[in-house]
Design brief:
This protein is an alpha/beta fold. The protein contains 14 helices and seven strands.
């Protein structure tokens, strides 16, 4: 590659417009409520890659960027969705061939007997090549308390591929922040290969209600005014209950509210229901949840 002359130039704004990056980032905004720090970091990474590509085009010296990432945060904070959009961004900029996302857990990689783990791990890697491999709860890969655990074999294969084939595969490790820190401490090979660490904050109460509106809109439903007040109350109470999972818990709550709405309409209707009735979640559909009974197992 020849060196660029001082008069050569690339219009980064036009390059951004023609790359399709804008579509990916706009879709990220549509897919996810809030998460401003995460979206800002994704835009920063996209800008870095756009500039790196411009440098290559002009023949400037470039160091292939390390793109493996770590996503930390509680369940239901959008980590898988962002990984999907990241796969699209990398594909639009030519850093991965296919731009698909393969999402796995320990069970997809680690076998239960001798000779089982390597084929499983290599099969997953083969499917992920040219795209992004997303490993959720990555700290479960290796369980040192179990002397017959085969996770270390999967880790060694992953580390080798992350280093030697980083131009054809991006790996994203995800999980709770504290457990990921422990995992990286005990597996320094992973830490040295991870270039970008992104923390996903919990949603606040208002954001969770907005997420509910988006979910219901996609299903062809809406909240009545009373239903929105009830849901806001639900969010405050549900957050204090066990196993709260941010947007995931809200989606589950809405599924149950739709069930209650269906039963209510079937039981109360005189034989005819309107489109508005069929599409509206009322306060009673929300407040029938056991969350309002303060049950420790409330859902």
């Amino acid at each position: 590659m020849t060196s660029a002359s001082g008069n050569d130039a690339i219009d980064l704004k036009r390059d951004f417009a023609t790359s399709g990056l804008g579509d990916e980032l706009a879709q990220l905004d549509r897919d996810l409520v809030g998460l401003a720090p995460v979206k800002r970091r994704i835009r920063e990474i996209a800008a870095l890659l756009l500039v790196d590509r411009a440098r290559q085009t002009l023949g400037l010296a470039t160091e292939p960027p390390t793109l493996h990432m770590s996503f930390t945060g509680n369940p239901g904070t959008g980590k898988t969705t962002v990984a999907l959009r990241m796969a699209g961004i990398l594909h639009k900029l030519g850093y991965v061939r296919r731009g698909h996302l393969v999402s796995v857990t320990r069970d997809d990689l680690v076998g239960q007997y001798i000779g089982h783990t390597a084929p499983k791990t290599k099969d997953v890697l083969k499917k992920a090549m040219g795209g992004v491999l997303f490993i959720d709860e990555a700290y479960y890969l290796y369980r040192p308390e179990n002397e017959r655990d085969y996770g270390q074999e999967a880790i060694e294969i992953l580390l080798q591929v992350m280093e030697n084939q980083r131009d054809d595969l991006v790996v994203i490790l995800a999980g709770y922040a504290d457990r990921m820190d422990t995992f990286f401490s005990s597996n320094p090979g992973f830490r040295s290969r991870i270039a970008h660490h992104i923390d996903f904050p919990d949603y606040d109460d208002g954001e969770l209600v907005a997420i509910a509106d988006t979910i219901l809109l996609g299903m062809g439903y809406r909240l009545s005014d009373g239903g929105r007040e009830a849901l806001a109350d639900y969010v405050v109470r549900r957050r204090e209950q066990p196993h709260f999972s941010n947007a995931r818990s809200i989606r589950n709550a809405l599924d149950r509210a739709r069930l209650r709405q269906a039963v209510r309409l079937f039981d109360d209707a005189d034989g005819a229901v309107t489109a508005d009735q069929l599409s509206t979640i009322e306060a009673e559909d929300i407040r029938a949840s056991r969350v309002f009974a303060s049950s420790p197992e409330a859902v």
